[in-house]
Amino acid sequence: MRQILFFLIIAQLAGLSARSQLKDYTIGPHGDTLNGVDQQNRKQGKWVNHYDEIRGEPGFEEQGIYKDDKKEGVWKLFSLQGDLIGIEQYKWGNKAGICQYFGINGTLQREESWVALNPNKLYDTLVVEDVEHLDKYRTVIIKNTGAAIKDGTWKFYDAFTGTVIRTETWDLGKLEKSQAGQRAMPDSTQAVAKPKEVLEFEKKAGKHKIKVQDGSVH
Fold first, then answer.
1. Are 191 and 205 in contact (CB under 8 A)?
2. Where do the DSSP E strands lie in 2-136?
3. Predicted model pTM
4. Which residue among 85, 141, 147, 160 is least enclosed by CB atoms within 10 Å?
């Protein structure tokens, strides 16, 4: 019991220390620090961004980590009704790795592949797979334009059957191949299997809705 109390006190002190370094922040429903801004007005730590519907485009919320004003690691996207609609990977503020997007019913609709470059370098060196010779790699020097680069296989899925209806192969921003897949007829007797990310989210969180309360420090 004393050990548990000790760790709780340490966690609270660590939270207070982190907040003391922030100029502004909000407090989440579980007492966690959200939407923190440091003394240099840079976004830091856990953030929740809310976007309202605009010009027919549905609104959504996104959650993830900022490091020195740049997105970092895993970011999750939710519809305004609380459904998980996307999982994105970030590095140095740009998309990096595999990003997945889901329909309201939880089925995978699109899978993208991205490469991010080190912002501290004008030119970055990458080791990439040769699209003409799989399992063979080459070293490429890329000029850094500050944006993520499409690279690898992009997949587009049928919303009803879950089958791949189109694939695109990108080689460092250049579209090498676009190929249509087989569009199968939906089977009304069998539901499309949801990706494990969606199932885990629904099991742990159910419908997602974040509320924050004012906790700004000026």
1. no
2. 22-27, 33-38, 43-51, 60-67, 70-79, 84-91, 94-95, 97-102, 108-115, 123-129
3. 0.79
4. 141
Write the burial class of residue 134 (CB in 10 Å: 0-12 exposed, 13-18 middle, 19+ buried): exposed
State mean pLDDT over 110-133. 89
Identify the burial level of 160 via C-beta atoms within 10 angstroms of its C-beta, where 0-12 means exposed, 13-18 middle and 19 or more buried: middle
Say if CB 50 and CB 26 are below 8 A apart. no
Q: Distance (Å, rounded) from C-alpha 86 to C-alpha 195?
A: 11
> Who has greater pLDDT, 19 or 113?
113
Q: 199 vs 207, which has greater pLDDT? A: 199
- C-alpha–C-alpha distance, residues 87 and 59, integer Å: 16
Q: How confident is the model at residue 37 (pLDDT cuts 50, 70, 90)?
A: very high
CA-based nearest residue to 59, from 35, 79, 82: 79
Contacts of 43-48 with C-beta under 8 Å, sequence gap 24+, read: 43/69, 44/68, 44/69, 45/18, 48/210, 48/212
